[in-house]
Amino acid sequence: MFYWLMKYVVIGPIVKGIFRPWIVGRRNVPASGAAILASNHLSFVDSIFLPLMIDRPVTFLAKSDYFTGKGLKGWATRFFFKATGQLPIDRSGGKASEASLNTGLQVLGRGDLLGIYPEGTRSPDGKLYRGRTGIARMALEARVPVVPVVMVDTDTMMPIGTRIPRVARVGIVIGEPLDFSRFEGMEGDRYILRSITDEIMVALQRLGEQEYEDVYASTVKDRLVARTKRAPETSTVAVD
C-alpha cells in the first residue's frame, strides 16, 4: 500500500508532471512472474524513473549506507529508498556478496521483478562498463529471464556530484527478454557466468548505443580518485 501511494498519489504524479519521462518497449516487461531488469546506471535517479514508468513494482538492491544515515538527511534518504521499494545490501564483497545474492533470489522467489545494475555502480563518465557476474548467477539459479533496460539522459538531469536535479526530459528503452535456460544447472561454471554477463552487456550496448569499455566502472572510479589526490588542491574531479 505504501509503495502504491508513493507511486500513484504522492511522488509519481509530481515527477511525471515535471520531467515528462518517455518509455519505449514497456510490453517487454513480463506481465507476471519473476524477472530481472538489467539496466545501465547513469544517475541516482535511475531507480526512481524505472519503477515509475512500468506497471509492476520493482525491487532494487541498494547499498546499505543509504539506510543507516543519521539526522534529518538520513531519515529522508531512508524514507525515500523504502518508498521506492529498495532493499539494503552490503557491497563489501565475500560473505556480504553471497548475502546480497540470496536477498535477490528471495525477491525472485516471490515472483517479483528485481532491478539490477550489472556494472555494480554508476558510470563515472556516461560509458557502459563491464558487468559483474552476480546477475548471471541469479538468472540461472532462479531460472528467470533477463530484460535489458537502457536509461536515457538521466545523467544530464542529475550528474554525479549534484544534489538537485535539473528539469530535463529523460527516457527508458526496454528490450526483449533474454532467455538463458540453455545454461540451466551451470551456475557454478565461472566461464558460463562471464559469457552470460557479457551477452547482457552486449544487449544493453546495442539497445542504447553507449560507448563500451571492457573494464569495471569501479576501477575507473578508483583511477579518478587517485588522479584527484595527485592533482593540485585547486583542481577537483567529481566522482560517485
Provide the structure class.
Answer: alpha/beta
Number of strands: 9
Distance between the termini: 32 Å
| Element-level helix/strand string | HHEEHEHEHEEHEHEHEH
Major sheet attributes: 7 strands, mixed
Please report the number of helical segments: 9
The side-by-side strand order for the widest beta sheet comes to: 1-8-7-2-5-3-4
Q: What is Rg?
A: 18 Å
User: Mean pLDDT, nearest integer?
Assistant: 86
Protein name: Lysophospholipid acyltransferase family protein
GO molecular function, one term: acyltransferase activity
Keywords: Acyltransferase, Transferase
Domain Phospholipid/glycerol acyltransferase: 35-154
Explain what the structure shows.
There is one protein chain. With 240 residues, the protein is α/β, with parallel strands linked by helices. It has 9 helices and 9 strands. The chain has helices at 2-10, 12-19, 46-53, 71-83, 95-109, 134-142, 154-157, 190-208, 217-230, and strands spanning 22-24, 35-39, 58-63, 86-89, 113-116, 128-129, 146-152, 171-174, 212-213. The strands form 2 sheets. A 7-stranded mixed sheet has the order 1-8-7-2-5-3-4, with helices on both faces. Helix 4 links the parallel strand 3 and strand 4 (86-89). Helix 5 runs parallel beside helix 6 and helix 6 (134-142) crosses helix 8 (190-208). Residues 233-240 have low confidence and may be disordered. It comes from Microbacterium koreense. One of its GO terms (molecular function) is acyltransferase activity. This is Lysophospholipid acyltransferase family protein.
